[in-house]
């Protein structure tokens, strides 16, 4: 504990005035930085007879602490221990026995003074054990009478006070999740652990034990598509190897909304300038670079140390080796890439929408990995610098808007995307800034300027190539008895997230769509349904005749999904929507009479065949819809239109712009 209190301070300890030990301990992300010297001085007014510097800014790796600390007494049992100290009852221990117990278990050093109280202002307005400053509507469990908890205004944390009658005291615990920096802070009394969740395996149960007796078990699921976390937190107090005097689920499958985070959190050092910063620490360059301990301190102060890769990228290794003018490209389309400086190499994948760059910052002896990827099938943009990354839905993005993403202002990515639906292209601008020497940035690289990236389309069956619904559900502890059963909400959401389709589905779907006789209705006077619509569906032909709108109820996931196929005779285009997913295709180069398939990550498949009868101004439309959760498990496979003859609406060309106000 001394390290925690003396961090960064020089301490001089003397033994009888003869031996002087001087030390200073500072802490970076993965190392202690240690100065240690000793002097032996036989005369107080004369020069010391012996002096030696053992460590001079020595980097000592911080050991990985065991988060599963067992009892300090081997094979500890409260019942046996009480017998040993001559106390037979464990209902309410005398204070002297409690003090001895906590001392022998080495828990006393962690206890707060004073302890938390139910009357503390944080907990006074509690209802069912909860007080909250969170504005979101949360479904919380009723807590036992011996625990009160507070939820802060940012919603992703809890702060609790637990009364332990047997110990005649309270225990303060906290579980605070910073969703913007992916830092989890867990505290039990004065003991605190900060965990970077970028390496956390989402959905796995982890725990923090203090002295074997005080335990927090937690489980976090990241539902990116809905911008939520699902939290499970269990608190236990145990004084036997297999029994606990107290155990409760503080949070059980609670959906917590993520607060809005800035893509660009900015520098932690206001007005950062490397020269001024080095002067503040009395640092000087060692040749052209900083010394290792200086780099550790710099990365710590900039806030980036926890987000660096375990192994830095290397421009001499794949996929960067063999570059020409700093570029390796497997893209078949010739892209107009800007001038790449000699400290940087970039790779463009064969999809033409994935960029991976390695940037050398020589004075800091580090190479930063920067990457961006547009997934047109899931409509997402993934962007990252080292371990710090973000995946955003392009369904919510305002096309053409310039955004900036940064690693605490040190490395910055700025860019914009325009979606050319008809041309099946993206127009992308991408700029990378290196700001290691100052907040105003010392290097800027225009990697892409109005570059046209081709859309390659989404091929079917790729998503299901190695996926089994039954195996996945069993891995989550659930056995599927029948495809018509409804999964628990959490499991259904995790399944949809795993398949990459959750982002396209709203929570309410189309459940408000009216029910019709025979599950279908036609508002088009010249068309009547001849195909049988299954009970899972309700379909409607619109009054202008060339669009079918279906609502599909999917019991397995507890959701309904709207699917439309809309032929625009005037704009000569086809629009297909599945929930929030939209695909618009021009019919100018369409091969009429052939079957085509639109796949939404293989779960939803829309097969369609169109014929254009120009002489009679009619379309002949056939549509099949299937909903599957692996290559062999489908909840729906239905033909909704078969050789349906649909009259084309009359078109009035008045010469106005299609864009209002233009």
Quick structural gist:
This protein is mostly beta strands and 662 residues long.
Question: What does this entry look like structurally?
Answer:
With about 650 residues, the chain is mainly beta. The protein has four domains: about 1-60; about 80-255, no CATH class; about 275-455, no CATH class; about 470-645, no CATH class. Helices cover about 10% and strands about 40% of the residues. The strands form seven sheets. It has a six-stranded mixed β-sheet, with no helix packed on it. It has a six-stranded mixed β-sheet with strand order 15-16-17-18-19-20, with no helix packed on it. The N and C termini lie far apart (about 70 Å). Mean pLDDT is about 90; it is low at about 1-5.
Shape descriptor reads: flat
DSSP strand tally? 34
Cα-to-Cα separation, first versus last residue: 69 Å
**Spatial sequence of strands, sheet with the most strands:** 5-6-7-8-9-10
Low-pLDDT residue intervals, each spanning 5 or more residues: 1-6
Number of domains: 4
Mean pLDDT: 88
Number of helices: 7
Strand content: 35-45%
List the helices and strands and how they pair.
Blueprint: H1 2-6, E1 10-15, E2 19-27, E3 31-40, E4 50-61, H2 78-84, H3 95-104, E5 130-132, E6 147-151, E7 157-164, E8 169-178, E9 183-188, E10 191-196, E11 206-210, E12 214-223, E13 228-237, E14 246-257, H4 274-281, H5 292-302, E15 327-329, E16 344-348, E17 354-361, E18 366-375, E19 380-385, E20 388-393, E21 403-407, E22 411-420, E23 425-434, E24 443-454, H6 469-475, H7 489-499, E25 520-522, E26 537-541, E27 547-554, E28 559-568, E29 573-578, E30 581-586, E31 595-600, E32 604-613, E33 618-628, E34 634-647
Parallel strand pairs: 5-6, 15-16, 25-26
Antiparallel strand pairs: 1-2, 2-3, 3-4, 6-7, 7-8, 8-9, 9-10, 11-12, 12-13, 13-14, 16-17, 17-18, 18-19, 19-20, 21-22, 22-23, 23-24, 26-27, 27-28, 28-29, 29-30, 31-32, 32-33, 33-34
